[in-house]
Structure to design on (690 residues):
């Protein structure tokens, strides 16, 4: 798509079919609403912190919907929208940010690794997991999500290199949102683009408009197909923008200009897919389109209501859960502390 | 076969050979076990601990990886998430530091992070400690860095039989294990028939019984402590030697029982004394055996200096003499010898 949502063909990539275009838009509508709701909950003190991905929905949704059922997603902490698009319970996505536990979902259920807070460290997990799957004869690819700042980490380098040497089917989707908290991209790298980094590892690098859900989907789909076929891993740089602050406790007015934000808000990924859906009549005639878009909005409201309800509860996490899963069995000294804490709580 | 030809006594096995045999038996016994790291393939590792395994099992099971420790541990985590049981080698103690974040932030925490849904049965083998004349970065005793991290099992064998048995147990364990191999003892031998099953690795063992003082040791210092105990016996002093084996999580019951019986304790390790693992042992023994103690618990360890160059390491490493000097300071004559203001 161009910035106004008009279709642009590309000889290398296959555009998503109409049903998939609708899926992409619906997931972004839900993702946008989820980001807003979680931000509100953070301001109300219902969440300890929330890193919003408003503005980046196309990059996350386009990447995740390119995955097959058996594939794995390796998200970072700003990838809540990717997780709910993958089917993880939205309230469980927020467990980390509410502070109830570190990971709120069972990674095996939706084949989503825990949200990773230390940057780029989960990228080598994706490499190892796909290596293991191939050894077991399973056709499993992985999408490892990272940001522009994370590409400066040594772990990104090691993961790219291992993936390329072992030829494992991993696509590293770099959401270049231009800001690593307060540090701009020009202070992260001297590379012409982040996609260029792929060249040094002997793998393909793709540079895509990260605010174009259809384009991200097309590029990630192609990269995944090539990787599955033995063509090796790839870096996909999705150029997008973090419209909101880093988290609810950030102060972006100290480091960036409002006009820059306004520039990107004009290029909002949701406006573009909606324009395409309307212009091409993907959802039907004008009346039908309005009806379907309204139903997407209603779906998003339902998700927001569910999140509000689940986060409003006064349930407190069980202190005994601190002890149960540190090891496969509770060792003697830890068991002593467990009993001491239980006794302490009885006295209160 | 480790049985000597024509005799009933088992043959002498070195610790390196016992570890090699443990890896071979583990790879042969479970298709999910993979062994990889730097130079562990055709070369067989710089200490030859993986000798012959690449030839026997092929590149699918035993292989060289890129030279990047964080990537090695990170990929092992991913493999374990998908059901493999990776055994990775860090070539030397100090070369494991690039992997520290993976070990501390992911390997140790993923089971807990996921409420038990994702266990990580990974073994990180680390040849550690000094005494082999290695230049800088080849002789660190890094155990306290790992024992301070809940979620890791940190084990170290002191004998060839334990080296075999504990490595097999570590590979079969569903928890991540940092397996510290006392590299100066790779060539130490013991008459043992392999395979062998010793005590479970989370149980300390009494290596030598005694009545006057308990020496607490692990890894490379077990042999040194036994040497000290042997020498003291000649002078009429009965020393008990406890080998801790699994440093974390610690089962302190054997230790506490021993010290409450002898009334005196010295903890020995190669690592620098300040902030070392011995401080934890000394504090724990003091807390639990206070009314049985005849003297303060003493620590014998390396100097509080960066690991010395080969020609000076003899001054740094504890030996039997230094251990016995500490034993002599345990207030046998009820005189005040140590500590106090001023």
């Amino acid at each position: 798509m161009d910035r106004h949502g008009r279709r642009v063909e590309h000889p290398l990539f296959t555009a998503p079919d109409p049903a998939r275009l609708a899926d992409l838009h619906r997931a972004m509508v839900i993702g946008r609403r989820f980001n807003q709701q979680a931000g509100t909950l953070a301001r109300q003190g219902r969440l300890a912190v929330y890193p919003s991905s408003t503005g980046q929905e196309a990059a996350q949704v386009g990447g995740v919907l390119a995955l097959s059922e058996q594939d794995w997603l390796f998200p970072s902490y700003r990838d809540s929208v990717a997780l709910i698009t993958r089917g993880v319970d939205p309230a469980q996505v927020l467990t980390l940010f509410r502070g109830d536990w570190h990971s709120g979902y069972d990674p095996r259920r939706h084949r989503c690794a825990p949200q990773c807070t230390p940057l780029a460290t989960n990228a080598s997990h994706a490499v190892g997991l796909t290596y293991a799957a191939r050894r077991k004869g399973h056709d499993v690819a992985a999408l490892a999500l990272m940001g522009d700042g994370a590409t400066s980490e040594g772990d990104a380098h090691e993961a790219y290199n291992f993936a390329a040497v072992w030829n494992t089917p991993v696509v590293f989707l770099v959401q270049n949102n231009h800001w690593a908290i307060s540090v701009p991209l020009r202070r992260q790298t001297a590379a012409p683009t982040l996609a260029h980094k792929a060249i040094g590892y002997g793998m393909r690098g793709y540079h895509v408009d990260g605010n174009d859900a259809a384009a991200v989907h097309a590029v990630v789909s192609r990269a995944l197909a090539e990787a599955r076929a033995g063509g090796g891993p790839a870096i996909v740089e999705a150029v997008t923008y973090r419209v909101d602050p880093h988290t609810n406790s950030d102060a972006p007015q100290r480091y960036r200009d409002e006009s820059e934000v306004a520039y990107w808000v004009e290029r909002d990924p949701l406006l573009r897919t909606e324009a395409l859906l309307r212009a091409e009549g993907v959802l039907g005639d004008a009346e039908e389109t309005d009806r379907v878009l309204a139903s997407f909005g209603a779906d998003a409201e339902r998700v927001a209501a569910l999140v509000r309800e689940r986060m409003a509860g006064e349930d407190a996490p069980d202190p005994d859960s601190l002890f149960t899963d540190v090891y496969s069995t509770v060792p003697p000294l830890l068991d002593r502390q467990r009993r001491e804490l239980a006794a302490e709580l009885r006295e209160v | 076969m480790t049985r000597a030809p024509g005799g009933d006594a088992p043959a002498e096995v070195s610790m390196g050979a016992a570890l090699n045999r443990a890896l071979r038996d583990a790879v042969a016994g479970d298709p999910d076990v993979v062994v990889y790291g730097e130079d562990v393939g055709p070369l067989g590792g710089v200490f030859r601990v993986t000798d012959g395994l690449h030839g026997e099992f092929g590149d699918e099971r035993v292989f060289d990886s890129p030279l990047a420790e964080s990537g090695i541990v990170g990929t092992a985590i991913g493999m374990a998430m998908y059901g493999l049981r990776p055994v990775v080698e860090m070539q030397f103690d100090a070369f494991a530091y690039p992997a520290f974040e993976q070990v501390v932030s992911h390997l140790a925490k993923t089971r807990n992070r996921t409420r038990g849904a994702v266990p990580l049965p990974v073994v990180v083998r680390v040849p550690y400690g000094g005494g082999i004349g290695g230049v800088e970065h080849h002789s660190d005793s890094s155990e306290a860095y790992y024992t301070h991290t809940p979620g890791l099992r940190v084990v170290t064998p002191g004998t060839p039989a334990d080296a075999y048995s504990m490595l097999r147990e570590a590979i079969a364990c569903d928890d991540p294990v940092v397996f510290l191999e006392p590299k100066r003892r790779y060539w130490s031998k013991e008459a043992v028939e392999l395979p062998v099953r010793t005590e479970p690795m989370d149980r300390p063992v009494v290596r030598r019984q005694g009545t006057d003082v308990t020496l607490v040791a692990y890894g490379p210092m077990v042999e040194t402590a036994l040497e000290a105990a042997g020498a003291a016996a000649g002078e009429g002093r009965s020393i008990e030697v406890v080998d801790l084996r699994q440093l974390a999580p610690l089962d302190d019951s054997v230790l506490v029982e021993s010290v409450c019986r002898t009334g005196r304790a010295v903890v020995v390790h190669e690592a620098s004394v300040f902030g070392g693992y011995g401080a934890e042992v000394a504090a724990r023994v003091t807390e639990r055996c206070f009314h049985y103690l005849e003297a303060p618990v003493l620590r014998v360890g390396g100097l509080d200096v960066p690991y010395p160059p080969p020609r000076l390491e003899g001054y740094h490493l504890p030996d039997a003499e230094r251990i016995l000097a500490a034993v002599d300071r345990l207030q046998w004559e009820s005189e005040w010898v140590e500590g106090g203001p001023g």
Remarks:
- Chain A has 15 helices and seven strands.
- The two ends of chain A are 62 Å apart (CA to CA).
- Chain A has a mean pLDDT of 97.
